[in-house]
Amino acid sequence: MSHLDRLDATPEAERFPLVWQWINSEDPRPFFAELRERRPVLATPVCTLVARFDDVIEVLRLPAVFTVQPYVNALGTYMLAQDETPDHALDKSVMTAMLDRRDLPRVRAFVAAETDRVLDGAGERIELVGGITRYIPVRLVQEYFGFAESSAAKLQEWSYWAQMDGFHNYPWDLGADHERIHAEARRGLTEMKDYLTGLLQSRAAALKAGRSLPDDIVARLLQSRIAGPVGFPPEKLLLNVGGLLIGAVETSSQATAQVIEWLLQRPPRLDAAIAAAQEADPKTFDGHVWEALRFAPMSHYLFRKSAAAHVFGRGQAWETTIPAGTHVLPLIGSAGFDPARFARPDAFDPTRPIHSAFHFGWGHHACLGGHIAEVLIPEMVRRVLLRPGIRLETPIDRRGGPFPESLGVAWASGGAV
Question: Could you state a single Gene Ontology molecular function term (predicted)?
Fold first, then answer.
């Protein structure tokens, strides 16, 4: 029996748990393919799924219709929880200017050196999540974003609970301890606010006293002449600096761990990636990382809430109207394999452009620091794969949650290839 035939035979109240099981299965692509072919817009008692590339893009390019209202409880006034507001435009513009793309060679070099340093000190094996995939992004937050003299453990904790509350604490996250997650996130955000308040005050005092600051994002914001004329007061600075941490650690860790595991479990893909990793220009290697992440994505969906009724597939046999107030899950994990948009979508092709998938979202709410992640993630993967004889010892263990908590690898003695 097909997925949809089985779904239609299931009592309505039990349908969404079944759909949720399929979305979160080891390989949901057969379910997604069936949706694209037979029911591109699938309504359930909890939310509506949108499966085709063109319709997913339609959801993501219409922020006034498909809003990020579901994020508000977790993210408050942060720009990610706003749609086409003046504050959203201002905050994004200022922070984009601070996260200068000319920094990317510096960022990549820092990631390479830090990752090699950890691996060199590990002997011949390491638990990667604690040792690399969470640790290196935290180091980048400390050194490049400017979280000076911070506790690495606290940064990880704050990022973890904010990510849990912001992206894994909704009605469709079945089995989540919703109240505990929200409470832990609130506690962490309070601690982070206290830390950042002290940090900003001390660094502002250093500037006033004529002392120089390292070139990091906090220093740039404090020294920028943008802040005064356009109205970027201390509370905005604090909110947006905090957002840098929340967006950097857990997502980068998850993507890196999943790519490494996926490649190590597939020797032909691994061999090709290792060969590419040894080239001086990392562009070819990076393609292997992003294509692996298309097959092992961080999430198969995003979420929105409709502010108005909307018609999908107008004039098609499957034309569907969704009412205002509908929770909508644009299935990015399905859209990235839509044969109407991509040639040979089920084939592994490291030459595909990065926009063949939705690693950093799309449109109005695309990841602010996506360009940073474009060097952070593949360089961590690259340094690991350059260890001679690299092999998987223990696969990813999520310990009942959405994020990788451990991943063991080992290699032969000696330095990087």
Answer: monooxygenase activity
Q: Which domain holds residue 82?
A: 3-410
CB 148 within 8 A of CB 231: no
Tokens standing for residue 235: 């509370």
* Residue 73: inside a domain: yes
Q: Give the integer Cα–Cα distance in Å for 16 and 217.
A: 43
Contact 309, 316 (CB under 8 A): no
d(CA 129, CA 127) in angstroms, rounded, equals 6
Q: Tell how strand 48-50 and strand 327-330 pair up.
A: parallel
Contacts of 199 (CB under 8 A, 6+ apart): 146, 147, 148, 150, 218
In whole angstroms, give the CA distance from residue 321 to residue 394: 47
**Partners of 397 in the beta sheet?**
406
Name the one residue in this structure whose structure tokens are 């600096």.
241
Q: Please, what are the averages of pLDDT over each run of 10 residues along the chain (417 residues)? A: 96 95 96 98 96 97 95 88 90 92 97 98 97 98 95 96 95 93 96 95 94 94 74 83 93 98 98 97 97 97 97 94 97 97 95 90 92 97 98 97 97 73
User: Is residue 415 in a domain?
Assistant: no
Q: Distances from the Cα of 224 to the Cαs of 151, 184, 199, 217, in angstroms?
A: 27, 34, 17, 10
Domain assignment of residue 208, yes or no: yes
Write down the pTM of the prediction.
0.96
**CATH code assigned at 406:** 1.10.630.10
- Closest by CA to 43, choosing from 306, 300, 299, is 306
- Asked if residue 401 is part of any domain, the answer here is yes
Q: Are 40 and 321 in contact (CB under 8 A)?
A: no
Q: Alpha-carbon distance 140 to 159, whole Å?
A: 14
